[in-house]
Amino acid sequence: MGSPADTSKSIKVERYKRYIRRVNSTKLLNASSKLLFRATLLVALILVFLFTFNYPPLALADMYSTQRHLQAHSHFLSSGAWEKQLRHSATPRRPNGLTVLVTGAAGFVGSHCSLALKKRGDGVLGLDNFNAYYDPSLKRARQAMLAKHQVLIVEGDLNDTPLLHKLLDVVAFTHILHLAAQAGVRYAMHNPQSYVTANIAGFVNLLEAAKSANPQPAIVWASSSSVYGLNTENPFSELHRTDQPASLYAATKKAGEEIAHSYNHIYGLSLTGLRFFTVYGPWGRPDMAYFFFTKDILQGKSIDVYETPEGKQVARDFTYIDDIVKGCLGALDTAEKSSGSGGKKRGAAQLRVYNLGNTSPVPVGKLVSILEGLLNSKAKKHVIKMPSNDGDGPYTHANVSLAFRDLAYKPTTDLPTGLRKFVKWYVGYYGLQTSLKKDIPSA
Ligand SMILES: O=C(O)[C@H]1O[C@H](OP(=O)(O)OP(=O)(O)OC[C@H]2O[C@@H](n3ccc(=O)[nH]c3=O)[C@H](O)[C@@H]2O)[C@H](O)[C@@H](O)[C@@H]1O
User: Fold this and answer.
1) β-pairing verdict for 152-155 and 123-128
2) Cβ neighbours around 40 below 10 Å, total
3) Quick one: 57-435 is in which CATH superfamily?
4) pLDDT over 90 (residue 333)
5) Is 16 a catalytic residue?
6) 218-224 and 362-363: which strand pairing?
7) Which of 108, 134, 185 to mutate to test the pocket of ligand 1 (most atoms within 8 A of CB)?
8) What are the NAD-dependent epimerase/dehydratase domain coordinates in residue numbering (predicted)?
9) pLDDT-based confidence at residue 341 (cuts at 50, 70, 90)
10) How confident is the model at residue 389 (pLDDT cuts 50, 70, 90)?
11) What ipTM, to 2 d.p.?
């Protein structure tokens, strides 16, 4: 046993040691928390740098797509109610009615077709990504118009694979009317990637989902008159060359036709491509000439009217929307079933391509003079040579005998009649009735 002095000394030594251990461990804690803090700061700085300076489009696009993905997934999770809404919209209200997924349903042709299908008792579910290629508020207005008719549009992208699979799982679609695309001939010079993303990757993604579905739906989709490219035979027939596209837009549509061939061949998907010829009408696309000419004429701004390098007028086979809708419905009604199921081909399936035009080309100068009459305003015309490198062609002219034979397609609206209907809608939609000096003359 030691003396009391020894004991007190050893207690003090022990207390000191504990003190030192505590100090050391606090130092260690401080050091590691400092390290942690610095690491967190570094990670945060790197993230801020990536998002803000380094890859803004990529990082933001990823963020938005993840957000949309999560939104879609949160729909999936609270799925009962959401799935019920999908099924309600997609259920036909007539015996043997079609069950159609319409992609691009908030678009020009998509909204008209969705409404026409719904009105005759078919089930329609829309899909649209509401992108900002042109004023999204017009797309929202079309969506609201469709909602009044119990057509639901799911907000989502063609490239969102889980979403597509989910939609095809929830509803046994008999048909897909695929109209979602990056449209516009000249914009391809400015944003080529958007054409590849929507018209090629998006189309393949849709076909992948459709081929795996059970039952496989039949697919009708929008190709374009622009696939005729440098073809000089006239009027354009489905038998003519389409291997000389004059724009990237045309090339992606032509690629779509070839991709359709391969999915038909490998998986037995029933596929019908429709080559639309410059579609116009109420609820149309603001990026198209007839639409922005109307706006500019009313605002007293000058318009560029193109002529060919040889000084000739350019002409288009302008086709009225109601005629195009009849062609789309005719194609859906005559589409045979896909032959495969669950990704396996069980036999040959239908593969078709049709022109849907008006069979009557009109020079752009004539389009302008019709608008001048309807708007009661003189256009400030600026006639210029067509920019040589923007993919534009001098004229289009459809031979529609195949569509007439197989789809009973027969266009009935001439340009003056169709433009009158467009202008009537335009002044109503934008609330301009009173600014026009006189009423739009009726037919
Ligand atoms: O037929 C088609 O498949 C294509 O029709 C239209 O393309 P486009 O015929 O070029 O339609 P607009 O851009 O409205 O041009 C119509 C006419 O006006 C002319 N134009 C265009 C713009 C302009 O400022 N001035 C002008 O005279 C064009 O050369 C063309 O002859 C659509 O924009 C495409 O999405 C569609 O695929």
Assistant:
1) parallel
2) 10
3) NAD(P)-binding Rossmann-like Domain (3.40.50.720)
4) yes
5) no
6) unpaired
7) 185
8) 100-337
9) confident
10) confident
11) 0.99
Give the distance (Å) from ligand 1 centre to CA of residue 185: 7
As given in the structure block, the two tokens for residue 377 are 């305003």
Is residue 226 within 8 A of residue 185, CB to CB? The reply is: yes
Q: Report the chain's mean pLDDT, rounded to a whole number.
A: 87
Amino acid making up residue 192: P
Q: At what angle do helices 415-429 and 364-375 cross, to 10 degrees?
A: 50
- Catalytic entry in 134, 187, 195, 249: 249
Omega of the bond leading into 235 within 30 degrees of 0 (cis): yes
* pLDDT higher at 277 or 43: 277
Would you list the DSSP string of 202-263?
IHHHHHHHHHHSSSPPEEEEEEEGGGGTT---SSB-TTS-----SSHHHHHHHHHHHHHHHH
Q: At which residue do the structure tokens 């319409």 appear?
A: 102
Going from the C-alpha of 433 to that of each of 135, 142, 255, the distances in angstroms are: 21, 20, 44
Phi-psi region of 127 (alpha: psi -120 to 50; beta: other; left: phi over 0): beta
Q: What is the pLDDT of residues 67-80, one digit of tens each?
A: 455 455 555 546 89
Q: Is 289 in the pocket of ligand 1 (CB under 6 A)?
A: yes
Q: Which of 223, 194, 221 is nearest to 210 (CA)?
A: 221
CA distance 416 to 366: 10
Model confidence band, residue 1 (pLDDT cutoffs 50, 70, 90): very low
